[in-house]
């Protein structure tokens, strides 16, 4: 292990020296380490080589990434662990929506737990965790939006049944069917993502440096473009179309008064869930997939792209924004959040009272000493 670490260190120092020599001669073209690829193509051989030798990560991007991913990791871990605790352990009467919330929190946690590895990579400009973890990290970047969107589609169909088909609620919203639907989504997305971890062609191996640009390799393997576009259609367009279809029917029923038998609370809750999901998809996932599709159409390396970085950040922020969904769905989650806020306010009031008491005591002691 010591020899391997020493070899990696020497290799990295050699890389830094070579890169300094090259950038001192010619201007360096910046590279994006997020969604965008850091590979370039040669038109004669149609092969892709890492452009890391003549490029560097912009310092601003590295700093922003460190701060952003650290904040997302801390807040996202607390939020999703709380959601799992509420929906999986403290909820007495589970239903289909609680099953979907457990899966949303679980996929968020799986994705969030990989963020510390990115933080280390961006802080050191060096990947010390090996090839396997690098592949898993890239695969999760593809898996998370696919899985999250399909879970959102299941939640949308659940709201559709609750509002449009209230007579068949017990049949269509059973826990067993919800579990089966979630299991099918997990198997489907994991099966489509597993080849990314096991792909034979790996342009990153052409580099002599300890880097992790598997996400870029995935984008720039042009022979797999049909697979990538099929993934965009099936794991983005299809669930989004399901969501839009459900919402259009729900809105039509609400406008024409076909939901008079429903309780007002059920209507309000469903409308809030619908608005939350629509905003989250539009803000976090639509820009990411548009950028991803545009990259698949680009034939040559275009350099650092701010739009790609921004859309990747927005996609990651979905793991934190799910707190709004949890808060709307579960009264218990609301109580937990409110109790935490009230407890913090209580602690602040206790501290203020203790400070006030101490100041009075010190003043009285001073007065008695003078007398």
From TrEMBL:
Q: Where is the G-protein coupled receptors family 1 profile domain?
A: 79-326
List the keywords (alphabetical).
Cell membrane, Cytoplasmic vesicle, Disulfide bond, G-protein coupled receptor, Glycoprotein, Membrane, Phosphoprotein, Receptor, Transducer, Transmembrane, Transmembrane helix
Task: Please name the InterPro entries in this protein's record.
Answer: GPCR_Rhodpsn (IPR000276), GPCR_Rhodpsn_7TM (IPR017452)
Q: Any stretches that span the bilayer, and where are they?
A: 66-88, 100-121, 136-157, 178-198, 229-250, 271-298, 310-329
Where in or outside the cell it occurs: the entry states: Cell membrane; Cytoplasmic vesicle membrane
Q: Which Gene3D superfamilies match?
A: Rhodopsin 7-helix transmembrane proteins
Q: Which domain of life is it from?
A: Eukaryota
Q: How does it sit in the membrane?
A: Multi-pass membrane protein
GO MF annotation terms:
G protein-coupled receptor activity
Q: Which GO terms describe its biological process?
A: phospholipase C-activating G protein-coupled receptor signaling pathway; positive regulation of Rho protein signal transduction
Q: Which GO terms describe its cellular component?
A: cytoplasmic vesicle membrane; plasma membrane
Give one Pfam hit by family name: 7tm_1
Q: Please identify the protein, giving its name as recorded.
A: N-arachidonyl glycine receptor
């Amino acid at each position: 292990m010591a020899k391997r670490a020493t070899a990696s260190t020497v290799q990295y120092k050699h890389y830094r020296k070579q890169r300094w020599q090259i950038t001192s001669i010619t201007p360096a073209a910046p590279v994006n380490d997020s969604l965008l690829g850091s590979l370039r193509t040669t038109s004669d051989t149609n092969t892709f080589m890492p452009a890391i030798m003549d490029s560097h990560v912009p310092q601003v991007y590295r700093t922003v990434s460190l701060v952003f991913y650290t904040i997302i990791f801390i807040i996202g871990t607390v939020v999703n662990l709380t959601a799992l605790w509420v929906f999986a352990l403290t909820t007495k009467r589970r239903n289909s929506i609680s099953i979907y919330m457990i899966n949303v929190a679980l996929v968020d946690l799986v994705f969030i737990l990989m963020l510390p590895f990115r933080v280390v990579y961006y802080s050191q400009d060096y990947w010390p965790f090996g090839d396997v973890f690098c592949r898993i990290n890239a695969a999760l970047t593809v898996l998370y939006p696919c899985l999250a969107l399909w879970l959102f589609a299941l939640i949308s169909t659940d709201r559709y049944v609750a509002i449009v088909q209230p007579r068949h609620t017990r049949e269509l919203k059973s826990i067993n069917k919800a579990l089966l639907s979630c299991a099918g989504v997990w198997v489907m997305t994991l099966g489509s993502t597993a080849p990314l971890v096991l792909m034979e062609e790996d342009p990153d191996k052409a580099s002599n440096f300890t880097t992790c640009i598997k996400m870029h390799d995935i984008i720039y393997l042009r022979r797999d473009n049909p697979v990538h576009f099929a993934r965009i259609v099936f794991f983005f367009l299809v669930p989004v179309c399901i969501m839009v279809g459900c919402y259009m029917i729900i809105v039509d029923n609400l406008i024409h008064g076909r939901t008079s038998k429903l309780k007002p609370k059920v209507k309000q809750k469903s409308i809030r869930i619908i608005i939350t999901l629509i905003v989250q998809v539009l803000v976090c996932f639509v820009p990411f997939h548009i950028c991803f599709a545009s990259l698949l159409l680009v034939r040559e390396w275009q350099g650092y792209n701010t739009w790609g970085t921004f859309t990747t950040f927005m996609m990651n922020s979905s793991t934190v924004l799910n707190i709004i969904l949890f808060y709307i769905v579960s009264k218990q989650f609301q109580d937990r959040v409110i109790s935490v806020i009230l407890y913090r306010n209580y602690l602040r009031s206790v501290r203020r009272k203790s400070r006030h008491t101490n100041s009075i005591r010190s003043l009285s002691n001073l007065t008695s000493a003078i007398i």
